[in-house]
Structure formats: structure tokens, C-alpha cells
Design goal:
Elements: H1 4-14, H2 22-29, H3 33-40, H4 48-58, H5 62-67, E1 100-102, H6 108-114, H7 118-121, E2 126-127, E3 138-142, E4 156-161, E5 172-178, E6 182-191, H8 192-195, E7 197-201, E8 210-213, E9 217-227
Parallel strand pairs: 1-3
Antiparallel strand pairs: 1-2, 3-4, 4-9, 5-6, 5-9, 6-7, 7-8
Length: 233
């Protein structure tokens, strides 16, 4: 199978009129999310029925989808999907199950820039945790600084991907990936509908709350647990 197939799928999904995650896009075209993930990462060859669905959805020829670099084609149409959805670059294991990607300290700066780049995400270490829900997407982020005591610097947070930001309840602890601040762990207060911003608050009272505009946020992940090498004091 020509390698343009996986490249084309990534290009087409990222260039839709409205962005969407793999999970929601898989629902739209009725392909299992792990299967779509394996197609986009080049780990599996597509079934003919799936090729038809994808070609029809994007209004491209099956042969072109397989053998041409569509990013250089001017006739490729942008396909509309549901609004308020996000693109998530993700990886799967040999059983087509979502991996949990681990973002080490040394990769934080790269993650802020490359969070939506599948090739970058594929360079991160991955693992599985059996007690986490299989129908949710998780990633692990490092904690830096003292703004979220009693979690200490050097701890690692397990976080669940948030697709629709407007449903976040006030006071929810989240990992926020921002353009200017990088990766931070804060309590979130949601003013997206009224003012297009979130107010981020630390649990350490020495740090003042501050607003972040919606367009300055790259990703949001809901706190799901943490690992800390020392017993919390």
C-alpha cells in the first residue's frame, strides 16, 4: 500500500472546515476509532469498504487517496463536520487500543508547538493502564512549579481529554496547554460563552488567578489522577 494513504488522511482531517477529533470523525463516517487511528498512523491497510466511505466523505477518487499527495492538489474540497469539536493527534497499540502518551519534562516545549502533529506525538513514550476507562483518552503531563500544592514539582498527572470546552464546570482541575504559558495545572472557571475566556486559579494562594483567552488555548485535559514519588505532606 502506498504511504500517501495515511499522510492524506491526516492532511484531510486537519484541513476540514471545522476541526474534529479522531473519535468524533470516526463516528461520522462509521469507522471504529482505533481503526481510523491505525490508518492515520500507517499501522494498518484500509478495508475496501472503509476506503469507499473516506473517499465519498472527502469527495476524492480512491486512487488519488492512495497514490497522490493530496496536500499538493488544489481541487481537494474541505469537508464540513459538527462545530465545537477539536482535533486530537493520538496513537494506538498493536491491538488498536488508545495508548497513554507520556510527556516528559524535556518534551514540554516541543509539545506546546507539536500537540497537533501526529509525527511528534508518535515520538512520545507510551504505555497502558488497565484500571482507566477504555472509552476515554488519557495523557500524562509533568508538574512544574509550586502553584498546585500539595502536588509537588516533579509529580505526573494523568489527564482525560476534553473535547468540548464549553461543558467544563467551574472549579474543575485541568491541564491547560496554552500558547504563552505552556503546560499548566489549574482550577478552571469557565466564561467561554460570555467572554471567550477561562480564569485559571492555583490551589496555592500565593499565586493570583489570571484569564486566558479561548484562542490562546491549544488543549484542555481533565485531572484524573497523579503519581508522586514522595508521600504527600
Amino acid at each position: 500500500m502506498d504511504t500517501y494513504f495515511s499522510q492524506n488522511l491526516r492532511f484531510l482531517r486537519k484541513n476540514q472546515v471545522e476541526k474534529t477529533s479522531q473519535e468524533k470523525f470516526a463516528e461520522v463516517i462509521e469507522i471504529k476509532k482505533p481503526t481510523l487511528g491505525s490508518y492515520e498512523s500507517g499501522r494498518a491497510e484500509p478495508k475496501y469498504a472503509d476506503l469507499i466511505k473516506l473517499a465519498n466523505y472527502y469527495q476524492v477518487n480512491i486512487g488519488d487517496l492512495l497514490t497522490k499527495d493530496l496536500s499538493t492538489q488544489t481541487h481537494v474540497q474541505k469537508a464540513p463536520v459538527a462545530s465545537n469539536l477539536r482535533v486530537l493527534a493520538t496513537t494506538v497499540n498493536s491491538e488498536n487500543e488508545d495508548n497513554i502518551e507520556f510527556v516528559p519534562i524535556k518534551a514540554v516545549a516541543g509539545y506546546v508547538e507539536g500537540y497537533g502533529d501526529l509525527e511528534f506525538i508518535e515520538t512520545l513514550p507510551v504505555f497502558q493502564v488497565p484500571f482507566l476507562q477504555k472509552d476515554k483518552k488519557y495523557r500524562v503531563f509533568p508538574i512544574q512549579g509550586e502553584s498546585m500544592l500539595p502536588l509537588k514539582e516533579g509529580s505526573y498527572v494523568f489527564a482525560e481529554y476534553i473535547e468540548d470546552w464549553r461543558n467544563i464546570k467551574n472549579g474543575t482541575v485541568c491541564v491547560i496547554v496554552t500558547k504563552d504559558e505552556g503546560i499548566v495545572l489549574k482550577k478552571v472557571f469557565n466564561y467561554l460563552d460570555d467572554k471567550n475566556l477561562l480564569v485559571l486559579k492555583s490551589t496555592n494562594e500565593r499565586f493570583a488567578p489570571y484569564p486566558v483567552m479561548g484562542e490562546d488555548i491549544n488543549e484542555l485535559w481533565k485531572f484524573a489522577g497523579y503519581f508522586q514519588g514522595e508521600f504527600p505532606s
